[in-house]
Amino acid sequence: QVQLVESGGGLVQAGGSLRLSCAASGTIFSINAMGWYRQAPGKQRELVATITNGRRTNYADSVRGRFTISRDNAKNTLYLQMNSLKPEDTAVYYCNAAYNENFSLRNSWGQGTQVTVSS
């Protein structure tokens, strides 16, 4: 299994920056890809960005050019650098890992970290 713990959320003014971190533990070698998702009040959880083991990245249109996802394999940590933040970026941000277990693809989620952007 893979366990994930996020950190780095907080309150920031519009135009500011935050960096989220996600520390992974457990069967790290089984991870195929990792990503960040977010859920705003009253809305469904949505994809923010993903990164594969081959460092291929994918971003939601709403964050492309402002957010950067990266991985530090030596530290087993996933990052999300968020710049030029907007009030509409306010949400709980969740870290995700897709990993192999017993020939099945499974997902692990962190507990979430709150990001609040004030106007």
**Largest sheet, strands/sense/barrel:** 7 strands, mixed
Count of DSSP strands: 11
Overall geometry comes to: elongated
Oligomer description? single chain
- What is the helical fraction, as a range of percent? under 10%
The total count of helices amounts to: 0
Query: Regions with pLDDT < 50 over 5+ consecutive residues?
Result: none
User: What is the mean predicted local confidence, pLDDT?
Assistant: 96
Task: Evaluate the radius of gyration.
Answer: 14 Å
Counting helices, strands and paired strands, the structural category is: mainly beta
Beta fraction of the residues?
over 45%
Alpha-carbon distance between the termini? 40 Å
Q: Give the SSE string.
A: EEEEEEEEEEE
List keywords for this structure.
seven-stranded mixed beta sheet; four-stranded antiparallel beta sheet; 11 strands; 0% helix; elongated; mainly beta; 119 residues
Explain how this protein is built.
The structure is a single chain. With 119 residues, this protein is mostly beta strands. The protein is 0% helix and 61% strand. It is built from no helices and 11 strands. The protein has strands at 2-7, 10-13, 18-26, 31-39, 46-52, 57-59, 67-72, 77-82, 91-101, 104-109, 113-118. Strands 2, 4, 5, 6, 9, 10 and 11 form a 7-stranded mixed β-sheet that branches. The protein has a 4-stranded antiparallel β-sheet with strand order 1-3-8-7, with no helix packed on it. Strand 9 and strand 10 (104-109) form a beta hairpin.
Quick rundown:
The chain is an all-beta fold and 119 residues long.
Please specify the SSE layout and strand pairing:
Blueprint: E1 2-7, E2 10-13, E3 18-26, E4 31-39, E5 46-52, E6 57-59, E7 67-72, E8 77-82, E9 91-101, E10 104-109, E11 113-118
Parallel strand pairs: 2-11
Antiparallel strand pairs: 1-3, 3-8, 4-5, 4-9, 5-6, 7-8, 9-10, 9-11
